[in-house]
Fold these 4 entries.
Entry 1:
Amino acid sequence: MTKLRATAPFVASNVFSLMGNSIAGVALPLVLLAKTGDALAAGTLAIICAVPQVLAGVFGGALLDRLNRRDLSVASDVISAASIAALPLIDATVGLSFGWFVALGIIGAVGDIPGMTARDTLLPAVVEHDGVDLQRFMGVAQSIDGLVVIVGPAVASVSMGFLGPTNALWLTAGFSVAAAATTLLVPRAAGVPARTGRSSNDGASLARRAAASTKEGMRVLFKSNAVLRASVVLGLLIVIVMGSYQGMVLPVFFTQENAPALLGYVLSAMSVGSLAGSLIYARFAHALKRRTWYVLSFVGMALGMAALGPLASHGIVLAGAAFLGFSSGFASPLFGYFMYGLIPDEHRGAAFGTQNSLMLVVAPAAVFSSSLAIEAIGVRAASLVLTAAWLALTVYALATKAMRDI
């Protein structure tokens, strides 16, 4: 009997999910700014939704080491589709308000966060199922992801031009449904966690299992390996700065410039650069030392941020974003390789659930802080502060002892 292929439907599902997220990443901030007219409201929404997002990540991580990861991924995509589809539906009937954004943001967190963790934990099993080299697959997968994230913001800009920002969210919902349907083509056996001897009804409550999972995840991420610990810390710092840019600084800047459609094209330029960088990494991954890729990536990202940060002109912002993306194309698959290679399968649900939960703490806090900064000193000054933070991050990345001999 021919062995079912798992990688093709897994990649296709990820493509659909990323396409929807890319469109939502452009449309949602603009919809929120249009409905509230206040950058601080957008930052407040991020903080309000942070708690349910973290809880969803923690409980999702606990479930993923006990239940089928493929099935949870499917369920998460369906919930995400429903929460996004409700936004244009409510806007067309009773009208969107800040309260609706909060309610649907909380519902969306129940789907988005466990779904993201489910994909993370499912990937190594899918690669093993098909006998694919993990390091090369990470490079190829990053290249495909980069291509999707190029197309997504551009599609968002075009669809917003024809449909309006709110109705463009129907596309996000449709892609989430397509992601769920495609994930069903992944063999169900690939989603079974390695620790099969423990029943999901082992006498402990879900809350206790979630607490134990978080404790175990923190141990794995921060105490088991110095390279893994440094990778997680750097990832969190990158999320803080880039989350502030993509979620607050750039949307506010282009809204003030009366050019909201340019947001999609700048994010596409960043993704074009990321695609080029990840393609080069995929082709020459073994030609250079990992430390060399690492240094090239962080130095290049610092140069890109230095060009992007002052928000001097639309052209310079576009070029800086493209170079920043290109340089990040080396680091993303490299960090992914470390994460998958250093975390045992039986702990991946706990580790990735904890990592995603941490990111869900720092990202909203960063967006809220940047909204306060924008209100206090203006968007350009806030951008320069973030640029200085990125340069400090670069110094830390190059100097930290754990990453000197990787």
Entry 2:
Amino acid sequence: MKETDSFLKTWFRNWYDIFVHELRLIFSDAGVTVIFFIGGLLYPVLYNLIYMNGTVDEMPVAVVDLSESSFSRRYLQKVDATRECEILTYCSSLEEAQRLMQQRIVHGVILIPADFDDCLVRGEQGVVSTYADMSSFLYYKCLTMGTNLAMLDEIHQIGQETYQLPQPVLYDESMPYNKPFSYTIFFLSAALLLVIQQTMFYGSSLLAGTLRERNHSFASMPRHLQGLGIGRVILGRGAAYMAVYLCIGILVALLIPWLFHLPQRAWWGDIMILLVFYILDCILFTFAWSTLIWKRETVFVLFLSVSPVCMFLTGFSWPTTAIPEVWQWVGCLFPSTFGCRAFINLNTAGCSLADVAPEFNAMIIQTVVYYVLASVAIFAENKLMERKASVNLLLPAPPSRH
């Protein structure tokens, strides 16, 4: 019993020393501190400030109506009546409308061809072309939604007039989770948790690359802690990141939505459970993949290339069923793929923990796999560093200069 007590005391004492040592490394590196605290805390606030309104209403558009028929006039009246678009002017040619867009007087152009009326009379498909100012995605969204909503209503009315339906087929527009179709709700629900993964990976990898540039091991410890078990190293270092990112995660997932009036349909306890699982998954993901970082500047190259891919794979902007199978397998490598989906379902759609069980199960599997990979990486790298050290001892010392 005494031997067990002694082992446990030693284990926890070593774990605590590793935990404190990792915290000192984090706070002693200015670059890591900037990424963790400035990046992790500033990005969510900055995104919300940029997309504060989340919608653009009454966007000015120019119209080129080459048909000048009753059908085109009725359709344009419906476009003008939408919340998204306001017809500011009519132009005689597309070139004139393009000049107005270049001058930023309008942010979209609607072109109705000359045969629009003839096509509809013959029962053929009528074509309406739209051109949007892509300096902001919100302009494209407004023009697309305004013209499409008017087109759906026009198709419904033409069908009623053509086939003389006694009672029109009624349809109801329902968007229960994002009624104003706000881009803020649409985008930030995925971006908030992605910030946690990305800043943790880049900050920790920056630290790992710095240590390797100084010929230190991935699990570099003070001299009196070297030779300890791999489990102690991973859990001690992981506890340091957990302590830091629980604070950041609470701000990102709970306080930011409350501060900027984003939907919060989940109980805060469910969000905290998700945060703990997700942060743990991100920590072990970082430990496993940061073994590939050997230079400090490599992190900044990865930031530009990996972040958009991770965002797309969450499925917030494209149905997951429409993502190619090879990219779905790539998405399984990142905790954000499942963490962001679970957060969207919980906080935006109001699901329960049971409803997001598949995402939780995937994160648990990732956690186990990355723990094993991180353990193997630490063991292999320490053996490599020991071999390098022994070779250096066998090499003759350089001749001294007099």
Entry 3:
Amino acid sequence: MEELVLKSTIKVAQMTELSPSEQALINSAIEATNRSYAVYSNFHVGAAVLLKNGKTVIGCNQENVSFGAGICAERSAIFAAGAQYPDEPVEMIAIAARKPDGHLQETPISPCGICRQVMIEVETRYQQAIKLLLYGTKHVYVINGMKDLMPLSFTDF
């Protein structure tokens, strides 16, 4: 039997090590956590996408008593960007979360599987990787594309 080894690269950075545009995008994601509607989980997530045209679009999780009717922050931001700027590729996405006590997460959170697949679709659509900035107060994970989060995906560009 043959063994397949998959490798992912995730950089661990401090906010001060990031570029001003990366820091600004993270701050937009943090601000978006305040707009979240999370009355059931009390877990407030914000996302901000930076488009190729320089525009930033934010999103946040929106819960519903019928759990399947809610939406994650990442998809909220990506779909809003697609509706407003359909021809603009997503260059970068930042994600931040607040715990039930209102404090920001210390360690970064990772997108769910559905959001990961949506981001792969966006990468495929525009034929370019999306840089991910996963924020935590202790550090930020910097990931240069979805292949490092989902090396075996349905599509590939």
Entry 4:
Amino acid sequence: MAREITGKHVLLGFVGAFGVIITVNVVMAYNAVKTFPGLEVKNSYIASQEFDVRKDAQEALGWTVGAEHENGVLRLEILDSAGQPVQPARMQVVLGRPTQEKDDQELSFTFDGKAFVTPVEVADGNWNIRMTAVAEDGTGFQQRLFLHVK
């Protein structure tokens, strides 16, 4: 005996299908907002007006920065345009995951004559190093480095 599809069956099908879609969207939106670390700057218009000036000053320093993690030690090397090690007047470094803030940690480094080193245990995967420094002449320097730990 064949069952007849009634309006009630069609309504239940539509409600069920859209219920699944809406539930998935709500869960995905909630997780996206929960793991979003926040804004990079408070006012993007003001930041864009100052960007070129800061960029030109930073590039004039001629610094290159490299990072590596080996045997539980993070090594941050800052070199000038002549390839010589640089010691900024001030430096702040935050190590964290690219997509969340819960693993962020501010690091304190010691200068070993060639690079800045600090012991830090990190899990495998991708990490961001957000470095802010000030040169001896007061020029600001910012760099985000990507670190992949195996």
